[in-house]
Structures are given as structure tokens and as C-alpha cells.
Write a structure and sequence with these properties.
The protein is an alpha/beta fold. It contains 17 helices and 16 strands. Helix 6 crosses helix 7. The chain is elongated and about 80 Å long.
Length: 524
């Protein structure tokens, strides 16, 4: 089984995602987490471009890693300049990174229209830059930027550029689909042709502009590439890069190709959610392998078949990648989710038993009043535990007060105060927020943090309100859905009431209680 080298560029390419800005501490935490997963190379950043990346390389030199090598990223020398005098190359050497990744131009359009230099000078820029770094005893990877577009426009010149990298003794040449517009069949054909002309090991770097970054990476690997570059959760500029979590999952479970240690594969979901938390970019529920809904089953026929044989509607055991199976409660699912949830609580419940019928009736009444548990799995979990008398509240609410004020400067402020007790300890807390729900959330956290410090690990990621009966006007019931996330998971809770604050409070309360219950269960 041939090993595929995993080169992670979350800290560099991923940081170019719109809305993402990693702090120095964020970058160091992600580096540690990727090393724990067994990633081969971590591209730490571009030391020649900004002070934060230069500081990162200073800090990372003080750390030791189990599997990962940290690579510094930069460009070839400037046109008509000496490699030894180039500021970017000097910064790469100053970073003390043992591995350096250099990118250069493969597409003649970029050479003439962007760099404004000659095709021959571009080849010299590639050769000189790599040779200079190689003489300094660095491991050198060459990213052939825009290679596939360049090959399609002028294959002879595109090949000449990577021959220059080979002559400079690059350790690996990575073919880049920088614009993300190449199809898998094209990738495969071009890689096969390149392999006839290049003796250096090849890698692949794809972007997701056609939603084909993973498919193109796999096509390249199938054609002989031995290194794959990408980011976790597909972070990256425009539509992102190849998602390494998906690539690793497919390599291990479908292609029998080792990418990380086998005993680390069950950390895929945890790693994905950790990076999601640090980057503040939500993992899509339907994300392959690690998504919240990746192994969720809603239809009654599906659930019935799954109970008989899990292979009926799942392509692999979710625990292999650190995920878990879920049976979604809805009018389509019948009593089976209730029975299955009861089993997890060590309660044997027959579908035909009076207790099961009673629970189903209670569930139907809740749904008739506006609760939609198929979209709020955490609230359903709490509903079942409360109904089966298997739940002890972590705190007792004695009351809350919320006020909203618009001041003379047209700014709107919200204040909330809460009284509650934890194990007979009385607590009072007040907080201001951007809105009443934000103020309530802050006041509740303030009252509970000293009793439950693990609440600092979670935050609310989404808040949705829907009016259930528009004919009732302002007196209509509203349904509030709150999505929350911590370092390893995400969950959704629900509240329904004519008063939007009360509906929000119900969903907020469930989100906090579910987090506390989840962590308590995990620690046992």
C-alpha cells in the first residue's frame, strides 16, 4: 500500500478565505492539532509577506512534533534580480524552516501579462531560486502555479518550467489547478503525460471552483501523484481548496491508500470541528464523513432497514472517522427513533408498548404546537431523557428580566438579569448585549461559568426565527432554532412560544444543558 504524503495549507491558503483571520495563537493551536492527526507537512505561512508569519516561524522552532514538518512558503526571485539578494528568499531562509515551498509561473499568459518578463527569464527565475535554496540544505517543493491552464494553452512551455525545477533538484513538483477550472479527465491525462517527462515525484494542488477539487486530487493520485495539498474543511480563496478531511477519508476507506496513521483516522471529525471553531467557519451539516447529517437517517423505511443491517443505508461505519449515526425524529420516522433513543438510555421499549405509545403521543402534541424535532436533535435528546425520568437539571432558574432601550444617539441596547441556583447556591447575574437574546446568553453564561467552566468551549453559531401562523399577526407563535458548537461537535435546539423572548430562552436553555450533559456523559 503506497503512502500518500499529506501537505496541509490551512494556515496559508486557508487563511485567504473571506472572513477568516488566524491569530498567531490560532496558527500554533492548529499546528498542534494537525500534528496530532498525523499530517506530514504543515505550511505555516509566508514569512516574506507579513510580521505575523515571521513570528510564527520563530515560535514554531521552539516546538517539537510527532509527525509533521513545518514548511515555509514563498515565491521565486524577482525578474532580473540575484537570488542571493532577493528579500523573499532571504526571509524563507531566515525562517529556519527545513522545508521550503516555492511557487512559480507555468502559464505563459502570467509570465508575459502579469510578471511582464520573458519566458526564458521566468525559467531562470525558477531554476535560480530553487538552486539557491537547495544549496542551503533545504528540502524544496515546487508549486507549479496555474500548471493545468498553462499546459492547455502552451504544453511545451509549461513542461519547460517544471523541467527547470527538476534541474534545480526540487524534491517534489506540485502541479496546481490554481483557477479550479480543470475537469478530472483532463487532470488525469495531463499528469500521465507529465510523468513521461519528469522523474521527480509529483504532487497535486487543486481549487474548488467547479466543486471538483477532491475529485481532481483523486484523479491525480490515480495517475501517479504521491503528494496532495489542501486545507481542512475546504477553506481557501474563492470556492476554497481540496478538503483534506474528505481526501484522507476516501484514501483510507475506499482506495486502501495510507495517508495518516490508521489509529488516527477516528480523529477526522474532531479535527474538522476544531478548525471550524478556530476559524469561525461552520462545517456544513451535509459535509462528507464529518458533517452532522453525514450519517443521519430520517425516513421510516431507511431507519427500519438500518436497524436490521447498518450497511443498508451507510457506505461505512461512522465511528471509523469519529462520527456517529443518528435517527432523526419526524412524522416520517414513526416510533423507531423513540425506541432507539430509549435503548441508549438503557430503557427497553417495545414499539407496541403503552409507554412507547405515550411517548409518541407526547411527541406528536409537541409537534402540533410547533416543535420540529427533526431540526433540533439536542432538544429531542433532552425531551426523551426528561420523559423517561433520566435527567437531572444542572441548575434551577428562578427568573429573568430583559429590557431594551433606544437612546438619543439612535443606538439600541439590551440588558438582561438572571436569578438561578446551582446546588443550592444562589446566583444573580446581569449583562448587556446587542439584543435581548445576546444579553440573556451573556447573563446566563456569567452566572454559570464558575460552576461549569467547560461552557467557555461553546458558542452559538446560528439563530433562526420563524412565525408559525402569520394570520395571528403579532400574537402568532414563533419557532426559534439555535445552533451551537464546541471544539468537537455541533447541535441544534428549539423553543416555541407566542413570546419570542420565551421561545429564545427555551432554545438557549436547551443548548446550555445539552452541552453540560454531553460533557458529563463523555467524562464517565
Amino acid at each position: 500500500m503506497n503512502k500518500i504524503v499529506i501537505y496541509d495549507t490551512t494556515l496559508r491558503d486557508g487563511s485567504q478565505t473571506e472572513g477568516v483571520s488566524f491569530s498567531l495563537n490560532d496558527k500554533l493551536k492548529i499546528t498542534d492539532r494537525l500534528d496530532s492527526l498525523g499530517i506530514d507537512y504543515i505550511e505555516g505561512g509566508w514569512p516574506g509577506s507579513n510580521p505575523k508569519d515571521r513570528e510564527y516561524f520563530k515560535m514554531v522552532q521552539k516546538k517539537s512534533f510527532k509527525t509533521a514538518k513545518v514548511a515555509a512558503f514563498g515565491s521565486t526571485r524577482r525578474a532580473k534580480a540575484e537570488a542571493s539578494e532577493d528579500a523573499n528568499l532571504r526571509a524563507l531562509l531566515a525562517s529556519q524552516a527545513a522545508t521550503v515551498t516555492i511557487f512559480g509561473k507555468s502559464w505563459d499568459l502570467h509570465v508575459t501579462d502579469v510578471l511582464k518578463t520573458s519566458l526564458d527569464e521566468n525559467r531562470k527565475m525558477i531554476y535560480d531560486s530553487l538552486s539557491h535554496l537547495k544549496k542551503k540544505k533545504r528540502e524544496i517543493f515546487y508549486d507549479a502555479e496555474h500548471f493545468f491552464d498553462g499546459y492547455k494553452a502552451n504544453p511545451e512551455y509549461a513542461i519547460k518550467t517544471i523541467l527547470a525545477a527538476q534541474e534545480a533538484k526540487a524534491d517534489c513538483i506540485i502541479l496546481c489547478d490554481t483557477n479550479g477550472g480543470t475537469l478530472p479527465d483532463e487532470v488525469r491525462a495531463i499528469v500521465l503525460d507529465v510523468k513521461k517527462k519528469i522523474q521527480v515525484p509529483l504532487g497535486i494542488h487543486t481549487h474548488n471552483d467547479l466543486d471538483l477539487a477532491v475529485a481532481n486530487s483523486l484523479a491525480a493520485i490515480g495517475a501517479g501523484c504521491v503528494q496532495v495539498q489542501g486545507t481542512f474543511n475546504g477553506l481557501g480563496e474563492r470556492c476554497g481548496n481540496a478538503d483534506l478531511g474528505t481526501v484522507i477519508g476516501i484514501l483510507h476507506t475506499k482506495l486502501n491508500r495510507k495517508a495518516i496513521p490508521d489509529n488516527k483516522l477516528n480523529l477526522l471529525k474532531e479535527t474538522s470541528y476544531f478548525i471550524s471553531e478556530v476559524s469561525n467557519m461552520k462545517v456544513a451539516d451535509n459535509h462528507a464523513f464529518v458533517g452532522h447529517s453525514a450519517f443521519a437517517h430520517k425516513g421510516g423505511v431507511h431507519i427500519d432497514a438500518m436497524v436490521k443491517n447498518p450497511k443498508a443505508y451507510e457506505h461505512l461505519d461512522p465511528t471509523v472517522v469519529g462520527n456517529h449515526r443518528r435517527f432523526v425524529t419526524s412524522e416520517l420516522a414513526g416510533k423507531m427513533p423513540i425506541v432507539m433513543k430509549a435503548e441508549k438510555l438503557d430503557v427497553v421499549l417495545d414499539k407496541k408498548s403503552p409507554q412507547a405509545k405515550k411517548l409518541l403521543k407526547a411527541l406528536q402534541l409537541k409537534e402540533q404546537s410547533g416543535y420540529q424535532f427533526e431540526a433540533a436533535d439536542a432538544s429531542f435528546d433532552l425531551f426523551m431523557k426528561r420523559a423517561l425520568k433520566r435527567y437531572t437539571p444542572f441548575f434551577k432558574l428562578e427568573g429573568f428580566k430583559v429590557s431594551t432601550e433606544k437612546r438619543f444617539d439612535n443606538k439600541v441596547f439590551a440588558d438582561a438579569s438572571i436569578r438561578l441556583s446551582v446546588n443550592e447556591h444562589k446566583e444573580f447575574s446581569a449583562a448587556a448585549g446587542d439584543g435581548p437574546v445576546d444579553a440573556l446568553n451573556k447573563a446566563l453564561r456569567s452566572a454559570l461559568d464558575k460552576f461549569y467552566p467547560n461552557l467557555k468551549d461553546m458558542h452559538l453559531t446560528d439563530y433562526k426565527v420563524r412565525v408559525l401562523d402569520t394570520q395571528e399577526g403579532t400574537g402568532a407563535k414563533v419557532r426559534v432554532l439555535i445552533e451551537s458548537q464546541d471544539l468537537t461537535d455541533s447541535w441544534t435546539t428549539i423553543g416555541v412560544h407566542e413570546n419570542i423572548i420565551q421561545a429564545s430562552w427555551e432554545a438557549l436553555l436547551d443548548s446550555i444543558e445539552y452541552k453540560l450533559l454531553k460533557d458529563k456523559t463523555k467524562s464517565k
